[in-house]
């Protein structure tokens, strides 16, 4: 019998190699997602076998003020930190793209915070923003401003965490910079010849060419921000007065401190749906403003 | 009015001077613009650096000086003892070891698995390939909160809780993010190399191990340092899966330190900052010396994404 042809071997080996990754997906992504849906329909305290309760967990969540608080906190966080982060990082990238000297140095400095672990940043933030011993209030005092209680003040705790996310947003600056450097210079030259000034060049060339990158960052930013956990856990423990009671923080508490597996799985499913809906909305809406180069 | 010759000269120079200013106005504006540009960039850089500088300064202050109001910037003396004291306050040597083990396990796993799977997408032709690739990409966007509870149940059933297995084993299947990265890289290698190897009787596995991998050192490097950063800094998964303190990673150790000490007016913030700095140092060093790779990794996935 003839052995397999090269083509057939390609197919066989292709499937085998891919199956390693596919197995991982099944075990660690697809399987768990399905399981999460299933567990959310049960009442399960992990030591005893689960009991089927239908949609009761979801109904209880709707009546749970902590659930709504966690949604409110998290949506506020996403709604502020993502746009500000994108705008800030994009602005810095624009500035650095003006033929500034020492770009490698600036890039290093702006990217560095993104390399630090979330735990270290959270601890550092407690220290830096301490109302009595931290430098922020010290610097403010030197210009005559009485600084607030930051992480200890329920009006300022969430904004402080937003500032934390902005501090690390410099990391994405590198992406925008690379994108900006990819815009063909002929476009700018042609525009200049036609009499376009700097603002025109930005609005009609730079910005449209950058919209795919911005869209990608927007989606990834939204997905990521909805899942924030470490700052809430370490810096504020959800407080003060639940001001930083993030969604994932509440989920963690329900799943891994009181082991209400069914209830927390329902939370997880809801989060999944929220993120999915947001992503779809963003992508649909983006068709109005996105510009792909190959499309005209 | 009749101009006397002296006035005429004076008027002429005035006119000249005004002309000169008007002509150089764009240049002046550009210089001012340049100055503002650098001011903003430098200002932003300073803001980015201040917290890290403060971390360093605080780590070198003697304990009483930490709580001085108003705070001092430069320590009155360099209290180097915070470093050994902090490291021994909790068994951080052990935590370094644990974290190191996890890092080695995950980095090796990803480099091997992600590239193998990527090879099948980039180089081999089989039905359904592109659809399944999209499936892989879609799975990347599933939030961790959704999968973590069933994962916990699974690992508990396997008896793997409080061990490193839940943290390392998934890496040996390949993360979609890295599979995407390696596939993009493989696509840039000319097919002629493959064909030549095949003509010489090389199997697909042979092509992968002996041709693709050696050629992919830059991309493998990107995978390695990204996974290194991810594993070294990880907190959520270790928090959930590691329970006894001797299995703790550095992140868990730092959190324990803070929990034990509290944040009050006698807490060992200098030691905590010292250990935090040491924990950050390896990633900073890797990043600093392999910057190009970090940036390359971002560019491949962020820009072309």
Give a description of the structure.
- The complex is a heterodimer of chains A (296) and B (305).
- By secondary structure, chain A is mostly helical.
- Helices cover 70% and strands 1% of the residues of chain A.
- Chain A is built from 13 helices and 2 strands.
- In chain A, helix 3 (65-96) packs across helix 8.
- The longest helix of chain A is centred in the first third of the chain and has 35 residues, at 6-40.
- Chain B is mostly helical and 305 residues long.
- Helices cover 74% and strands 0% of the residues of chain B.
- Chain B contains 14 helices and no strands.
- Chain B has helices at residues 5-59, 82-89, 92-122, 129-140, 144-158, 165-168, 176-186, 191-199, 204-215, 217-233, 236-241, 250-261, 269-289, 291-303.
- The termini of chain B are far apart.
- Chains A and B meet through helix 1, helix 3, helix 4, helix 5 and helix 6 of A and helix 1, helix 3, helix 4, helix 5 and helix 9 of B.
Q: Which word captures the global form of chain B?
A: flat
Largest sheet of chain B: none
Number of strand segments of chain B: 0
Provide the residue-averaged pLDDT of chain B.
Answer: 88
The helix count of chain A comes to 13
Secondary structure category of chain A:
mainly alpha
Described by strand count, sense and barrel closure, the largest sheet of chain A is:
2 strands, antiparallel
- Helix/strand order of chain A: HEEHHHHHHHHHHHH
Strand content of chain B: under 5%
Average pLDDT confidence of chain A is 90
Q: In angstroms, what is the radius of gyration of chain A?
A: 24 Å
How much helical structure, as a percent, in the residues of chain A?
55-70%
């Amino acid at each position: 019998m003839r052995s397999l042809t090269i083509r057939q071997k390609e197919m066989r080996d292709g499937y085998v190699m891919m199956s390693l990754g596919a197995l991982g997906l099944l075990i660690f992504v697809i399987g768990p997602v399905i399981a999460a849906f299933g567990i959310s329909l049960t009442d399960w305290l992990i030591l005893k076998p689960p009991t089927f309760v239908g949609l009761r967990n979801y109904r209880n969540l709707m009546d749970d003020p902590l659930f709504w608080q966690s949604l409110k906190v998290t949506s506020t966080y996403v709604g502020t930190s993502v746009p500000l982060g994108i705008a800030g990082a994009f602005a810095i990238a624009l500035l650095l793209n003006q033929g500034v000297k020492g770009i490698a140095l600036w890039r290093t400095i702006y990217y560095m915070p993104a390399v630090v672990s979330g735990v270290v940043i959270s601890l550092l933030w407690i220290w830096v923003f301490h109302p009595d011993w931290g430098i922020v209030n010290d610097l403010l005092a030197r210009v005559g401003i009485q600084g607030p209680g930051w992480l200890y003040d329920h009006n300022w705790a969430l904004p402080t965490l937003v500032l934390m996310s902005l501090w690390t947003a410099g990391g994405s600056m590198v992406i925008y910079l690379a994108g900006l450097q990819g815009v063909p210079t002929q476009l700018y030259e042609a525009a200049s010849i036609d009499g376009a000034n700097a603002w025109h060049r930005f609005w009609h060339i730079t910005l449209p060419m950058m919209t795919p990158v911005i869209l990608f960052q927007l989606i990834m930013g939204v997905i990521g921000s909805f899942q924030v956990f470490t700052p809430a856990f370490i810096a504020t423990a959800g407080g003060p007065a639940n001001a930083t009671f993030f969604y994932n923080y509440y989920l963690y508490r329900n799943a891994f401190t009181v082991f209400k597996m069914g209830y927390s799985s329902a939370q997880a499913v809801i989060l999944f749906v929220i993120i999915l809906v947001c992503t779809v909305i963003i992508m649909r809406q983006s068709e109005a403003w996105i510009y792909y180069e190959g499309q005209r | 009015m009749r101009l006397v010759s002296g006035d005429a000269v004076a008027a002429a120079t005035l006119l000249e001077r005004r002309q000169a200013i008007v002509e150089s106005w764009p240049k002046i504006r550009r210089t001012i613009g340049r100055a503002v540009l650098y001011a903003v960039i430098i200002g932003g850089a300073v803001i980015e650096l201040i917290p890290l500088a403060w971390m360093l300064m605080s780590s070198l202050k003697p304990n009483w000086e930490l709580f001085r109001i108003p705070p001092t910037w430069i320590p009155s003396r360099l209290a180097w003892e915070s470093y050994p004291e902090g490291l021994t306050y909790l068994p951080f040597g052990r935590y370094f070891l644990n974290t190191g083990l996890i890092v080695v396990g995950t980095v090796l796993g990803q480099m091997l698995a992600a590239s193998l799977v990527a090879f099948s997408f980039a180089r081999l032709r089989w039905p359904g390939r592109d659809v399944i690739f999209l499936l892989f990409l879609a799975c990347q966007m599933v939030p961790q909160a959704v999968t973590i509870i069933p994962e916990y149940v699974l690992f508990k059933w396997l008896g793997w809780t409080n061990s490193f297995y839940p943290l390392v084993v998934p890496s040996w299947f390949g993360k979609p993010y890295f599979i995407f990265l390696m596939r993009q890289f493989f696509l840039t290698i000319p097919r002629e190399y493959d064909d030549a190897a095949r003509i010489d009787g090389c199997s697909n596995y042979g092509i992968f191990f002996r041709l693709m991998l050696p050629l992919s050192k830059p991309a493998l490097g990107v995978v390695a340092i990204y996974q290194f950063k991810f594993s070294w800094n990880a907190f959520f998964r270790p928090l959930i899966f590691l329970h006894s303190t001797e299995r703790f990673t550095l992140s868990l150790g730092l959190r324990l330190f803070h929990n034990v000490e509290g944040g009050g007016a006698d807490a060992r913030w200098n030691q905590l900052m010292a250990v935090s700095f040491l924990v950050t140092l390896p990633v900073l060093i890797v990043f600093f010396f392999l910057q190009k790779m970090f940036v390359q990794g971002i560019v491949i996935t962020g820009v072309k994404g």
